[in-house]
Amino acid sequence: MAPPARQFSLLSLLILLAAASSAVGVGEEEFTEELLLRPLPDRKVLAHFHFRSSAPPAAAAGRHHHLFPKAISQLVRNFHISELELSFTQGRWNYDQWGGYDPMSTNSAKPPGVELWAIFDIPFTEINATWKNLTHTLSGLFCASINFLESSTAFSAPRWGFKLNPGNLRYGALPREAVCTENLTPWLKLLPCRDKAGIASLLYRPSIYKGYYHSQKLKLTSSRSGGIILDQTLTVVLQPESFSGKQLHSTDGQLHPSWSMEHLFNKRLSGKCLVSKSSRIFVEIEKGIVDKSGSEILWDNEVFVLSTTPDRVLKEIDHMEVQSSSLYEYDVSNYNDEKPLDVGITWKRPRIWSCTPPPYHASRFLMGGGNERGSIALSFLSTNLQKHLFSGSNDCLRKAVVFQVVPWYVKVYYHSLEIFIDGSRKDISEVLDKIHVTPSEDKLSPGTLEMLLRFPCSMQSATLTLDFDKGFLHIDEYPPDANQGFDIPSALISFPEFNSSRTYPGTDPFFVSPLLEDFKEDGVVKSYTEVLLVPLTTPDFSMPYNVITFTCTVLALYFGSLLNALRRRIGEEESELKKTAAKRGLIPLLLAKLRGKKIDKSNSGSSPASPSGSKLLLKVVFVAIVAVVFHYLSNS
Amino acid sequence: MAIRHYWSMAAAAVGFRLALVLFGGNLHLASRPEVSTPLTSLRRLAEGYWLKQASMSPYSGSMYHGSPLLLSVLGPLTSSKRSGGHHAHIYCSLVFVAVDFLAAMLIRSTGRRLQMARNRSLKSLDLTRSVNSSVNVSSGDAASLIYLWNPWAIITCVGSCTSPIENLMVVIMIYGACSRLAPLAAFGYVMATHLSLYPAILILPVTLLLGYGPDSPPPKVFLLKGLSASKVGMPENEISTGQRDFRQFAWKPVLHFTLWVFIWSCYVLLLSSIILNNVGGRQEMFEKTYGFILTVKDLSPNIGVLWYFFAEVFDVFRNFFLIVFNMNIVFMVLPLAIRLKHRPCFLAFVYTAIVAMLKSYPSAGDSALYLGLLGLFANELAEMQFTFFLFFGYIGVSLLSPVMHNLWIWRGTGNANFYFATGLAYTCLQTVLVVESVSSMIKHDRKLRLLVKA
């Protein structure tokens, strides 16, 4: 009866396998890789890498992962994260030149340094402790000093200025964190092919760190039904070397530099990462470049020519229908080692165009000199976008939300908030719609300012000023280079009435691109302001001993002299003085003895001198003996 | 001998203040470290008031550290809009001018009472001629004029900080105790303690004042006088009755005082909790006011020495030194009280001076108070030593300190040590002043004894 049994077991195994494969089919782990290239008006090139790994809900797949990085799934499970975003940025996004009203600037323009925010799915009381653990974990995972965000002076809990939440969001930023390859390597490790194959193999370090802007981001979304989605993006702005090599920043009649992927990344693309579901490269050409509206945009026209024939051309419909761009798509799976892909653009004709700026150009600066006090000013300059968008209506109001975190040593006087519109002072209540302030506690928590402002549409410029006093720190609290100053993290300005989403209609339902999905998402136009550098007064770091001794001396002087003044009885002192003047000291006595003179007994009242002398001698001998014994004991 | 033209001089002082407040423009005195401390700054009070108006605790944000009573009295005055080149807190400054004038008047009448008591005791000792022949200034007038014309009191008054009110409370306490008005003394005591904590140690002089009455020569002198009188054969009962008047400890006003202290403190606490209702409790108030004073949390520079000390001291020793420096004030309370118990008013002056020197956030306003009180003892301290040195020392420090601060903070050419050095010098000067005044008072008492003996 053995063979039938074996057959049966084989059968059951097969059934099991089939069941397992069908179960996996329900929600499979997926990985997609995409790259978007876009020429920028100021002769630079934007390269935006987007990698998405997704894992089905934990219950469906258990704890085993094929593609999804285990470190991240453990992170999500341990800290009950429902959303998390970590970005490492070097350089500042140029909102005027590179665009401030498109999904790229909204999603990928980040403040310099490290920015981390997370939404937790746990009771409010445990959030701070979980956040602290999370910062340590991330700091280990990405080789960065994210653990500095652990201190309660470094993170805050915005309610609506950053992202609407019931209180389970924590936000922290480290403006001075330097970003380098040591942060990129662990980030690449999360990809299934690392940088060995596929689009990630283009990440040639010398070229991507040479860029003007470099932002590496990791975004996690997790939900019970949807599983975990990990989006890793890397945005770089590169300067392709111009063949003429002159006048790099001008946008005049000069021809834009032509470039190709090999030119930018020193490498051509020879095939996709084998485990990726889709692997695509897009070249985005802004509408302003080819001003023939309506007609089909060719990849080879009178302005430029693309080096390779695109697989597809997508036209973007902006929801405002102001300015739309076209996307040239390349499917990397069609290329291999023999036929590598090298997308590039060659300009035929000089062209001047511009990206859509944000509705207001926001910038922040410090006012006042000296190290005692100062003011933070936040200025909004209208870019006259409304005039293009909604011409005619000048009585309307435009909303702007300001979110700003100030460290505790910048002691902001919130009552000193002043608003100037077009140079004239306005009553705060005219402009300020809603304000939420969490004042800073010394050495405990930073101050958070969330404001909802309403500007009249006709406004050209607005300035908000806030006075502050500079704090004085204990010498241990200063960083190593104290005179460099302290950074105030960027403020975030968002314009809730402006939406930067872009849709690409006319694509077939089987065409799935996470990058374009991201573009489609409802994105409020945001812009980050500059990081401020506040110089703080320093004490003398070499002085602690001197200060301690001087102060203690003065206080001892006070104590001693006052006690002495109280204790003195002048009358008695005078009589005491008379007595001692009559007495003779020990040393003259001894000297007299040595000289062999007899002491004049009548002079100093009989013989009290010799017993007192011997007493003193005894004392000296006793002390000497004690010293010798102590020395002996301590040595043995 | 009253000072001629007293009223015109006092009015001139008030007028000068008013002129500075109204027409001085913004002198930026409010941000001077010598004038306003984190405890007394009116700007911080305005921030606290703003927070309270935004239904947050006024103490959230480590900005305001004062009393909730001041918040509700002065707060509405600070929220008025700044207009043109005017002074930022003009109404508050007008209040402070009135407060300063009131304090000066109370000092004057305290001085009158002291003078009366002094004349009476000298008369009973038959020393009126031998002592008064040298100097006899009306000490109350002198003291109030010193207080009114003291440049530090003026910049404190004009520089919008709340120390004039704290000073007034101390003066009310001393005046009330001198004139044996237990409720008034208790009010001053409770309010002064509530506002700045340190006047709590003035409980001893106030009790002595209420028990024994104003300053008089030591009881030993009266005993000696009694002995010599009996030798000479004067009617003994006359002297002994006079003596009994002075030296019998009167329990009744002291008990009254205790009762009133209790009532006033309950009242103040009740008011505070009503004001802080819904926006933070009394626990937070104590932590942010008294806790802030005792633990020296703010390290911004002031004319004392503790800020730099605690900015530099190693963290391990911080707690130890906090205890030492706070105890340092308390240590001298008892020895002084034992030695000077017959002169409670002078004792109050010495305590005020010590507090002004050793408190965690000293300011020029504290010095203005004790320098004003010093004038009350112009007759007794006529033979004080080092007065020339002290006078020019004070002038030198008050000229050097802003210069050093400017060099360090604004120009960045000096460093913190320069400013700290002026703070050290200032503390030394105050030490000399305290020690010299105490020892010359003791000498004065001895002189009286010798005079009686002779």
TrEMBL record, chain A:
Residues 1-23 form the signal peptide. Keywords: Membrane, Signal, Transmembrane, Transmembrane helix. The keyword NADP does not apply. GO terms for cellular component: GPI-anchor transamidase complex. One of its GO terms (biological process) is attachment of GPI anchor to protein. InterPro entries: PIG-T. This is GPI transamidase component PIG-T. It comes from Brachypodium distachyon. The gene is LOC100822063.
TrEMBL record, chain B:
One of its GO terms (cellular component) is GPI-anchor transamidase complex. It comes from the Eukaryota. Keywords: Endoplasmic reticulum, GPI-anchor biosynthesis, Membrane, Transmembrane, Transmembrane helix. It is found in: Endoplasmic reticulum membrane. Pathway: Glycolipid biosynthesis; glycosylphosphatidylinositol-anchor biosynthesis. GO terms for biological process: attachment of GPI anchor to protein; GPI anchor biosynthetic process. The chain crosses the membrane at residues 88-107, 257-277, 289-310, 316-338, 345-361, 389-410, 416-439. InterPro entries: PIG-U. The keyword Transmembrane applies. Its main location: endoplasmic reticulum. It is a multi-pass membrane protein. PANTHER family: GPI TRANSAMIDASE COMPONENT PIG-U, PHOSPHATIDYLINOSITOL GLYCAN ANCHOR BIOSYNTHESIS CLASS U PROTEIN. Belongs to the PIGU family. This is GPI transamidase subunit PIG-U. It comes from Brachypodium distachyon (Purple false brome).
